[in-house]
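User: Teach me something about this protein's shape.
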Amino acid sequence: MLYLKYTKTKIIKKLVRVREGVKMFKNTKELRNLIKQGKSNEEIIKEQLEYLNSDEYKNNRKKTIKKGDSDAIIFHDGYISPDMNVANEYDRLVAVSYYYNDASNEIYNSVINFIRDNMNKEGFSIFFMMELIKNYFSIKENSKYKKLYDIYKQAIPKKPYLLRSDLPYIIQEYENSTFDGDIVDFGIAYLCDKIYSTTKAEEYKNAALKYRTSVNFDELDDTIRLNLTDIKDAGIAACTEFAFLEQNILSFLGFNVYMLGGKLIDGQKEEGHNFNVVEIDGTFMIIDTAMNVFRQFTNITSLEELINLKNFRVVNQDGKIVNYSIGLSNSIGNKHK
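Assistant: First, the predicted structure itself:
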């Protein structure tokens, strides 16, 4: 099995540079050795994913802590397998749960190819990973959602993030509808229904009716379960989706990584937030792609202290001050107990 191991050195030595401004994790020596042995990407991915989905791996993880009876993550150790849901919270309810099962293995191929291009270096670039994740979810000109994305921005300019909450419902309802048209046409009709229900403007009535009569709402599940690939190139991802994908990339590379859910205080605004923490030789580092944060904790020495985190102040890569809090008093238990 492929399991990337780390040497016992000081954490400051865990960072090297491929080029100016690119920080790297150590040590991906085992992965580089497999590449030198002539292993293909497909062979490496198959072997590692088999291990990450095995009972051997899962039974050595700590117990997952979720928010109440929901799928909202407060603490998760290691790889997120395809049979596990991770919820995205909205103000009203926990409504959307994501899983990840990318048959094309696009992300892992990109990760391995980066290592192939930097065989004379050590580690793995944090900033490359952040950009990889952002690019995976960002809106593209050839995205099937591009037209819908632009229409939302034009129709509701004061609510630029409305499509983030609406698209999962559009996807779920479209898949369970008799609608005559593609998902963009359906999304436009969905938006027309939303506008018509509040304005009663006649210009939206026919499209709203077409949407309403195509969906059997009684057959829809209360919780929407989507593959992360469903929102690829859609431009709607935020902290939960970023942290989910980051968790699996770092787990794939063999790091001890935890997905956390807590509060983020950004100026005067406080909101729920997911982020990742990597542990190397007992030292913990926060990595938050959504907020452009990479910072070592100076006062965290255990997982119990980590989930009791309160008011950890960080200046991100853009010079913005943010504060992280989790504030649980739970103990961390082994999964197999």
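Now, about its shape. The radius of gyration is 21 Å. The longest helix spans residues 183-199. If you'd like, I can walk through any region in more detail.
User: That's plenty for now, thanks!
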